[in-house]
TrEMBL record:
Highest taxon, organism lineage: Bacteria
Gene Ontology MF terms in the entry: transferase activity
Transferase as UniProt keyword: yes
Protein name stated in the entry: 4'-phosphopantetheinyl transferase
Organism: Streptomyces coeruleoprunus
Pfam assignment, any one: ACPS
The 4'-phosphopantetheinyl transferase domain, residue ranges: 101-187
Domain 4'-phosphopantetheinyl transferase N-terminal intervals: 27-94
Length: 216
């Protein structure tokens, strides 16, 4: 599914359940020691996905422990992103020579809990969601907005090396399956130019909402 919303330069792999026999590298095992079993399983499966995606780039299996800010540590010259939610895990990777950053996110297709939209949505975004809801009530647009923001964060953090508030990016969702992002915080420079605008794609299928940004 995630492949459908990523450009060809980005390799990806996904899983819909966990292989209970799968193992981790020692440094990964150390990073997850003490976590509950469900967390250990998603952490392990998404790393299997990441290693499968890296194999498509010709890169042999390597440890992928969490790095600064809990962002995954990719091999030199590689950018990527991982996501997991109930019933879904995915990873996407690309050569840094072709793509500056990748951010992917998966969410269950269900409205956000009460009160969350008020915390994460800007007034303009909330007005847009009203219009989208009137047009098509089958998509949980509030959850999709949240997912877009999570994908933005996964692109932002490895480039900026600092956190980004939910109010720091304004999302405009197009019902046709794309979204655009206006960054409102002082942006990092990418290839000598400020990162002020990025765009991504989204997919609503089989009980899941997926979002993906590949910043080229
Ligand atoms: C980091 C965050 C975006 C993860 O998203 P999530 O929906 O909770 O969880 P997902 O399963 O989709 O993604 C988790 C994966 O994201 C990756 N990740 C975690 N922190 C990251 C970071 N700082 N940068 C990039 N990727 C990160 C990791 O690979 C993690 O999986 P792992 O712990 O098994 O390695 C989220 O927890 C968070 O901190 N959000 C607050 C910041 C934010 O979203 N601001 C809005 C900006 S507009």
């Amino acid at each position: 599914m995630i492949e459908d919303i990523l450009p060809v330069e980005v390799a990806s792999a996904e899983a819909f359940d966990d292989d209970r026999g799968a193992d981790l590298f020692a440094e990964e095992r150390a990073a997850i020691a003490g976590a509950v079993q469900t967390r250990r399983r998603e952490f392990t499966t998404v790393r299997q996905c990441a290693r499968a995606a890296l194999r498509e780039l010709g890169i042999p299996p390597v440890p992928l422990p969490p790095g600064p800010g809990r962002a995954p540590s990719w091999p030199a010259g590689v950018v990527g992103s991982m996501t997991h939610c109930t019933g879904y895990r995915a990873a996407a990777v690309a050569r840094a020579s072709r793509v500056h950053a990748v951010g992917i996110d998966a969410e269950p297709s269900a409205p956000l809990p009460d009160g969350v939209l008020e915390m994460i949505g800007l007034p303009k975004e909330r007005a847009l969601l009203e219009r989208l809801r009137a047009r098509d009530a089958r998509v949980p647009w509030d959850r999709l907005l949240f997912s877009c923001k999570e994908a933005v964060y996964k692109v932002w953090f490895p480039l900026a090396r600092r956190s980004l508030e939910f109010s720091g990016a304004e999302i405009a969702i197009d019902p046709g399956g794309t979204f655009s992002v206006r960054l409102l915080e002082p942006p990092p420079a990418v290839a000598g130019r400020p990162l002020t605008q990025v765009s991504g794609r989204w997919l609503h299928r089989d009980g899941l909402l997926l979002t993906a940004i590949a910043f080229r």
